[in-house]
Design brief:
hypothetical protein PF0899 fold, 2 helices, about 90 residues
Length: about 90
């Protein structure tokens, strides 16, 4: 995947620091929102998502429901998604 969209799901804290807040929403919830945004913006749904292995908390059933393949990549920062079309 050479072209895609980066989506950050890091939430700022009161002190201005950034942290991933798993209590607020899961990877699947954030991924659903990111897919909807990507589809609206580019007119085509992404079929691949790369995330940091630390963030890989999604089941095969959730991936099937969302219609996307999620893979771990150490090149992606924690709390970020890389969405695109894998050809």
């Amino acid at each position: 995947m050479n072209i895609g969209m980066m989506w950050s799901w890091i939430i700022p804290t009161e002190k201005g620091e950034k942290r991933k807040d798993k209590d607020v929403s899961s990877l699947a919830d954030n991924l659903k929102t990111a897919i909807e945004y990507y589809t609206e913006k580019y007119g085509k749904a992404p079929n691949r998502c790369e995330v940091n292995p630390y963030d890989m908390d999604i089941t095969d059933a959730q991936m099937k429901e969302l219609g996307i393949t999620v893979v771990g990549s150490t090149h992606i920062l924690k709390g970020c998604l890389w969405l695109g079309i894998h050809e």
